[in-house]
Amino acid sequence: MQDYVKHKVKEYIRSQISQSDIRVNAYALNDQGEKNPTRSLFPQIKGFIDDFLSSKTTEPRWLCISGLRGVGKTTLLAQLWATSDIPRDQKLYLFIDQASQILGVSLQDILEVYEEILGTPYEELRSPVLLFLDEVQYEKNWGIILKTLYDRAKRVFIVSTGSSALFLQTNADVARRAVFQNMWPMSFTEYLQIKKRKPSISNVEDSIKTALFYSQTEEEVYNGLLSIQKAVENYWIDIHRMEIDTFLKFGTLPFTLPLKNDGLIYDQIKQILDRIINYDILNLGCFRSDVINKIPAIIYTAANSDVMSVTNLSKTFGITAVTLSQVLDILEKTQIMFRVYPYGSSYAQVRKPSKYLFTSSAFRAMEYGFIANIAQIDIQKGKLLEDIVGLYLMRLLKDQPEYSLTYDSGKGGADFIVGFQSSKIVIEVGYGKKGIKQAILTAEKVEPKYSLVVAEGNLKMDKEKKIVYVPLEYFLLL
Questions:
Q1: What is d(CA 476, CA 455) in angstroms, rounded to the nearest whole number?
Q2: Fold of 3-183
Q3: Among 69, 149, 348, 435, whose CB has the most other CB atoms within 10 angstroms?
Q4: CA–CA separation, 229 vs 222, rounded Å?
């Protein structure tokens, strides 16, 4: 690195350190100067950092936080910096895209200059140092650079964030050293916590989860939910019903909450989607430009379809079935969508079309634009709620042993079949009043321990049909 470039980098880093409060507060504080509420991932990450600073543990020392663009990773990083009890010159917050564009140097160059500013080789540090690196995908060689630093510096703790696509490029050496955390779109309680500063009720959330998924009978589900009915009613007492509609449309993405105009919100969401396609996916180098150009149309089709037949749609888009399958796979890995396989054997799952839901219902809502008649809007809201329920199920149950999430591909079948090691639960979802026909049809095939109908209405049980009607007011608190 030439001397004048090194001097420029040193000035930049010192500026970042001296102005960190200003830069961080733009994300950590609201317009009134109040601290923004934290997401559910915050306590765990902060716990890792606090344990490292207090020398309680030496591992983990490197966290990789992935997630959709717009899901709140930058704000999380700012809040972690602001709450880390360590001298300012021992914690560095860097926007890697800004550093790359402004300075035209690599992350390796920046780390070498920061080492000089610290005045001690990384290997010989006695005091802890924290590195908060945002959007590391803008550094081509981020993995090997941070792996090398991790191996050299036992007193450096790294928190790096990046788009979901970024971590498709990690190698085994990085995977062995870093702890990977995914930041999901917001739940309804997180949405209200950030928008209304309404505290969550974790004990009630745990009780709902236990009742819905770990009961042995429908009666146990019903009684478990009935036992917390008063607490649920108290939580909802000051919440307007329109908050559910707002949450379904775009409330899963925190950056939308201060915005008042739906058109502006959808424009911002479209920009995020375009950025994922034209930067994240493009830079993976998996597809020709003509295929990249067809991805928006593929996403639009997914938003307006119940299931996706690869064979039929490949003809529509003029690409091979193999290429379309690869596109859908990348859309899943970048967390734009997630796949729900049809229930059945491995052969049936390959032969029958899968259902693709959106990780953030805001993407589907953007495609809808809510320009429709009343009947269509109710159907669309039902699909948005199906996205939300699917996201909740994936987030809550993905780490359970032998967990599976499928749907009944038969005519009039239920939206979800949740499979555990030795049992199943049928789930049907609907916005507004919902019947039980689909749940009954699917239950006859798969013999679940019970079925759940998630919709508006009252908590009740049909013991003969082993069905519990679960009001939205309960399910959304998970």
A1: 10
A2: Rossmann fold (3.40.50)
A3: 69
A4: 10
Q: Greater confidence, 333 or 399?
A: 333
Report the alpha-carbon distance of residue 307 to residue 358 in Å, rounded. 12
Q: Is the dihedral of CA 190, 196, 201, 205 positive or negative?
A: negative
Crossing angle for the helix pair 295-303 and 262-275, nearest 10 degrees? 130
The whole-model pTM stands at 0.93
The pLDDT assigned to 373 comes to 47
Q: Are 247 and 191 in contact (CB under 8 A)?
A: yes
Spell out the residues 6+ positions from residue 128 whose beta carbon is closer than 8 angstroms to its own.
52, 53, 86, 90, 155, 156, 157
Please determine, for residue 370, whether its predicted confidence score (pLDDT) is greater than 80. no
Compute how many other C-beta atoms are within 10 angstroms of the C-beta atom of residue 399.
7
Q: C-alpha angle with apex 40: 469 to 46, nearest 5 degrees? A: 160
Angle, helices 229-236 vs 202-214, to 10°: value is: 130
Q: Where in the sequence of the chain do the CATH 3.40.50.300 domains occur?
A: 3-183
pLDDT band at 5 (very low <50, low <70, confident <90, very high): confident
| Rounded Cα–Cα distance for residues 268 and 259 (Å) | 10
